[in-house]
Amino acid sequence: MDFTKGQIIFTISFVVVFIAGLVWSYRKDKIINTQHFKGVALKLIITIIGLYSLIFLILKLMH
């Protein structure tokens, strides 16, 4: 399948603009997110470990 020159230019420009928008949005939200979500990473890690442990125990008890 051959792409036209216009399709290739559109795809490249779309990807560049999309990634630039993502970077801009991330940098803008980074300041706000650090203020509102302090300590969330630790709580998330503890929750995931707890859930995996619970699943492990349930599976061990079923056998």
Which residues form runs of ≥5 with pLDDT under 50?
none
Radius of gyration: 22 Å
Q: Which class best fits the helix and strand makeup?
A: mainly alpha
Between the first and last Cα atoms, what is the distance in angstroms? Answer: 54 Å
Q: SSE string, helix = H, strand = E?
A: HH
| SS elements, strand count | 0
Please count the helical segments. Answer: 2
Shape: flat
Oligomer: single chain
Domains, number: 1
Biggest sheet statistics:
none
Helix % is over 70%
Strand-residue proportion: under 5%
Mean pLDDT: 92
Description:
By secondary structure, the protein is mainly alpha-helical. The chain has one domain. Helix content is 87%, strand content 0%. The longest helix has 32 residues, at 5-36. The chain is flat and about 60 Å long. The protein starts with a helix and ends with a helix. The model has no long low-confidence stretch (mean pLDDT 92).
Q: What labels would you give this structure?
A:
63 residues, mainly alpha
List the helices and strands and how they pair.
Layout: H1 5-36, H2 40-62
Short description:
The chain is built from two helices and no strands. With 63 residues, the chain is mainly alpha-helical.
